[in-house]
Amino acid sequence: MTDLIEALRTPVADEGTGPVTIGMAVSRVDGRDKVTGQARYAAEHSAEALLYGVVVSGTITKGRIASIDAGKALAVPGVIEVITHENRPRLRSFDLFYKDMTAPGGSPFRPLYDDKIHSSGQPVALVVAETFEAARYAASLVEIAYETEAHETCLLDHVERSHKPSRLKAGYTPPPEPKGFADEVWDKALVRMEGEYYSGVEHHNPLEMFASTVVRGADGHLTIYDKTQSSQNSRWYVSHVFGLSKNKVTVRNPYVGGAFGSGLRPQYQLALAVMAALKLERSVRVVLTRQQMFSFGHRPETIQRVRLGARPDGTLTAIIHEALAETSRNEDYVEVVVNWSGQLYACEHIRLGYKLVALDRFSPIDMRAPGAAHGVHALEVAMDELSYELKMDPLALRLKNYADLDPTEGLPYSTKELRACYEQGAQRFGWDQRPGEVRSMREGHELIGWGMATGMWDAMQMFARASAVLHADGNLVVSSAATDIGTGTYTAMCIIAADAMGMPLERVRFQLGDSTLPVAPIEGGSSHVATVGSAVQGVCEKLQKSLFKLARKMPDSPFAKARFEDAEFAGGALRLRAQPALAVPLGAILAFDGAGRLEEKYMMLPNVLKQQNYMRATHSAVFVEVRVDEAFGTVRVTRVVSAIAAGRIINAKAARSQIIGGVVWGIGQALHEETQSDDRIGRFMNHNLGEYHVSVNADIHDIDVVFVQEDDRIVSRLGAKGVGEIGQVGVAAAVCNAIYHATGRRVRSTPMTPDKVM
Ligand code: MOS
């Protein structure tokens, strides 16, 4: 297994980094490889006689392909084949029902399956050539005639045919049954608010394009470098779709240049690249363009209605939150949206609703903090609106309704240091200096406003295995088929192992990104540290015990009469706590045994019986200052304090970076990001980074991150919950609330562009 190190280019910390402990700020072990271009991504792996595939995207939104003429394309020198639904290989499983592990309920999209067109930009052909340039040119020459049908892509036009999600997905948690009599109580509430909120479509824009390089071995074995959040999910998909046995396919993803959920499902370039490799018996690479990355999933457009009722003292009496979101015709994509509204504030009467409208669009897909990014936004803007109805400070309103038990189930929280987030965040921000009146702060031509919001995200743990091999040279190699989508998995796992074994960081390597490694879940839901990290800690503890047993057998062993508890692992050695001078280097213990290596395996199963008795979540309090130009309606987010409770932090540096990234994206959600659809033709129009705006350096000012103390041994044996998604939740709401405080204008849709703010 350790021979994968070179194939995967497993990174290692710089010599001299030395000992590390959990919670330290540690630079990425893969940082040098990344900034020097040594880290290779899916499209950067090569093969002998590699062929290049370029995808031809359909130009209609709904209908069928009447005819395809590939004659001119095939005449281009270097072009080998044009694969379409008419000549694709018939494959054992391709025409059967198949899914990837993360598929929503329904029937997944099958590229080049038949003549039907289901959504704009659907792939209709793959041109394969000896060079990328020939393939790209030939792709422009493929002539396709269509028969079009009427399409429906506008959510607002079709709200009347909404349905409850029925084609269910494993792990889908429908909104809980109503609690109490929310509608009646709201009707009679002395203080109440009602708001309708709209969030447009957003697209993931990771730096790395989706790509698959299929390297075909002489024996027909396929080694596939794929951009994915799980090598094992892509391997499973390829095996099932193409009827290839597990040992005929290896998928690798040692480096992934961002994904944010878009890589949770295998995307269509993978199926097309494998199809070409099998049909032509060659190695093939397919890379999508930025435009094509707007054709396979997005954060769905969502309409929400929130009603809150309260007593004059601020006690919430009713919460009603209903959401309507788009899905595709073939699948019920669910992100629930409303569930957090039953988990955040103490309230006796709660009713939550969630419905879908099927449109002629590609299925939506998870995008960072799916559901919460839009759902908690609406709730937290509504809470701000209520605070003005009550003439109460927005933070005081949240504290008044602080939930010590989960309001819908009555369960205790595994840990919940949200109160500390409020306190420490408010103090860092200077919230007590905030004037209550709107339009009360101004500097020159800018109005200044301060707003805040709460964030919440699930704290999940899945199942994982890990293995660890200690070598006589004192190096440790830990492995699991985990993924690092830029989040810092390599470094976090090395820290956990180095901390457990008392080894310098540079003596530890963590292998991930290969489907043949021990089972790991998809990197998603901010669950990787709690899951894979716990498996890594578990395997290291097994290794410690085996090493201790060996050490006791050494001639004149200082441990002969010691108990395991009397010993500790530190400085790359085993030593007695009482006599630290009597240290035996770990390598020497192995050398005595003669084996030269010691291997352990561990399987980490979440303690579901225990976990199910608790509400498990991460929390945040976000404080924002905006400056709004009165004449232009432009908004600058000049100051953000994000206070986070996410369990024990493994790498203070990477965790802070994750939260900063989330805040930046929250600012994008608030001010910039929206994919606009021309519903007359049913197409996303701004499918490029020139017109799909994301936050850039000029938009980002001061971001201060606070981690409050929290240690959660129910979510994971490490005490960690997980950071990443929690960083984004609530940020856009805090911006919205700050804009209101600055201007007195309530903007109930995102993004809050100048035309809405003015
Ligand atoms: Mo994340 S949206 O679970 O990759």
Task: Draw up the topology in text.
Elements: H1 4-8, H2 31-35, E1 51-57, E2 63-69, H3 71-74, E3 79-83, E4 105-106, E5 116-117, E6 123-129, H4 132-139, E7 143-148, H5 182-188, E8 191-199, E9 211-216, E10 222-226, H6 231-242, E11 249-252, H7 268-280, E12 284-287, E13 302-310, E14 316-328, E15 331-332, E16 349-359, H8 372-390, H9 394-400, H10 418-429, E17 441-443, E18 446-458, E19 464-471, E20 476-479, H11 489-501, E21 508-511, H12 528-552, E22 567-570, E23 573-576, E24 583-585, H13 586-593, E25 597-604, H14 608-611, E26 617-629, E27 635-645, H15 652-671, E28 677-678, E29 683-684, E30 700-707, H16 731-743, E31 749-750, H17 754-757
Parallel strand pairs: 1-12, 8-31, 10-11, 14-16, 20-21, 27-30
Antiparallel strand pairs: 1-6, 2-5, 2-7, 3-6, 4-15, 8-13, 9-10, 9-12, 13-14, 17-18, 18-26, 19-20, 19-25, 22-23, 23-24, 26-27, 28-29
Helix pairs in contact: 6-7, 8-16, 11-12, 15-16
The structure holds dioxothiomolybdenum(VI) ion.
Residues 229, 260-261, 264, 366-368, 370, 524-525 line the site of dioxothiomolybdenum(VI) ion.
Summarize the structure.
The chain is of the alpha+beta class and 758 residues long. It contains 17 helices and 31 strands. This is Aldehyde oxidase.
